[in-house]
Specification:
152 residues; mainly alpha; DinB/YfiT-like; DinB-like; DinB family protein
Length: 152
């Protein structure tokens, strides 16, 4: 792996750890709390972060998985915790999935980070570009989580 991709994957891991550090002391009950004038809770934000990286990669590569389909029902754009079912992952499962996701992405895509695909939204045409976009998106949801925590 070249240095450029080492740095990118290190950023993915570092920013993900920032999210995990913010929720390390959050309880399941706290993860369900939706403050007044908020649409979602911490649990939803964590599931959305997890979904987002895989969803963008799958959109780019024109692949689909059952995990993304299921997660999209609960954590996709426009959903809320009202869309949760008994099958929706709880806080501890989401934390575990988020911890492992950077390794999964590296294992599956390290040799394809610069492969060019037909472009999608914003002109994105490589997995590398997807990861840059999802790092930014993850930061937005990290802030949402931090804002919710102020009400706990």
């Amino acid at each position: 792996m070249d240095r450029h991709h080492q740095v990118l994957l290190n950023q993915v891991r570092t920013f993900r750890q920032d999210v995990l550090d913010v929720v390390k002391d959050v309880t399941e009950k706290e993860a369900e709390f939706i403050p007044k004038n908020f649409r979602n809770n911490i649990r939803w934000n964590l599931g959305h972060i997890y979904l987002d990286q895989f969803m963008w990669i799958e959109t780019l590569t024109n692949k689909s998985s059952e995990t993304v389909k299921r997660f999209n029902n609960w954590f996709g754009f426009g959903t809320t915790p009202q869309d949760f079912t008994s099958e929706t992952p709880k806080l501890d499962e989401l934390v575990s999935l988020l911890k492992g996701q950077p390794d999964v992405i590296e294992d599956l895509y390290v040799n394809r980070l610069n492969r060019e695909y037909p472009s999608i939204d914003m002109g994105i045409y490589t997995i590398e570009q997807v990861l840059v976009r999802t790092i930014f998106h993850e930061g937005m949801h990290l802030q949402a989580i931090m804002d919710i925590k102020k009400f706990l």
